[in-house]
Amino acid sequence: MSPPHSSSFVIAVDGAAASGKGTIAGRLAAHYGLPHLDTGLLYRGVGVAMLKAGAGLDDAARAAEMAQALDLSKLDDPALTSAAGGEAASRVAALPAVRAALFKLQQDFARQPGGAVLDGRDIGTVIAPGAPAKLYVDAKPEVRAHRRWLQTFARGEPRTEAETLADLIRRDARDAGRADAPMTRAHDAVLLDTTEMSISRAFDEALRHVEQARRRWEALRT
Ligand code: C5P
């Protein structure tokens, strides 16, 4: 069954950690003048709040409370983008109560009248299954680890490239293996493998696919 026709132009960008999805989503948002939500930051916000509170990362009730109380104006805290923040995010993201607490906020963002760009793991499958444009961004783990290591190195985080690769592989396995909203390509998402691509080439490819999707969506509206 095909998903219902979406009345707003939603671009869903899913994919693995350090695949380039966040940068691509940000550039698509700028290109189309659409608001952008990096949904990974929501899970990072909950994970880091749990760490700061000294709570166990498998304490579902506490994590769900933290998710409900999440302060969206604090999502620019640099602690969220650390390796520890990513790991904590992935742990709390496996808890159905946390996903449920963050669901409406994301769906409301996707449903705003002018359209929106969201990036994450389950946008095309769970949050906005009717999105007219869906991308699933991936790249070889070694290439993703190298990109992520360059970012963390620049920030002065003491992680080796091998540790970064091990972190990514463990996080991918947890994200893809969880029962609730696992990381997976929606059947109607275009796969964009950025292993051999510069970020500007990856954006050009993404834009080409999204433009095709936009033309199909426009044609259905008229
Ligand atoms: O995208 P980012 O790496 O910042 O996401 C951090 C973690 O948040 C992911 O590893 C994943 O476990 C979780 N996440 C999720 N669903 C989303 C976005 C992120 O489960 N839509």
Structure overview:
With 222 residues, the protein is of the alpha/beta class. The protein has a single domain, classed as Rossmann fold. Helix content is 54%, strand content 11%. It contains 9 helices and 5 strands. Strands 2-3-1-4-5 form a 5-stranded parallel sheet, with helices on both faces. Helix 3 packs parallel to helix 5 and helix 7 crosses helix 8. The two termini are 22 Å apart. The mean pLDDT is 94. Bound molecules: cytidine-5'-monophosphate (C5P).
Strand content: 5-15%
Distance between the termini: 22 Å
CATH H-level name... which superfamily?
Answer: P-loop containing nucleotide triphosphate hydrolases
- CATH class category name: Alpha Beta
In short:
This protein has 222 residues and is an alpha/beta fold. The protein has one domain (9-221): 3-Layer(aba) Sandwich (Rossmann fold).
Essential attributes:
222 residues, alpha/beta, five-stranded parallel beta sheet, 9 helices, 54% helix, binds cytidine-5'-monophosphate
Secondary-structure map with pairings?
Elements: E1 10-15, H1 21-32, E2 36-38, H2 40-53, H3 60-68, H4 83-93, H5 96-110, E3 116-120, H6 123-127, E4 133-138, H7 141-154, H8 161-177, E5 190-193, H9 199-221
Parallel strand pairs: 1-3, 1-4, 2-3, 4-5
Helix pairs in contact: 1-9, 2-3, 2-4, 3-5, 4-8, 7-8
The structure holds cytidine-5'-monophosphate.
The site of cytidine-5'-monophosphate has 14 residues, from helix 2, helix 4 and helix 8.
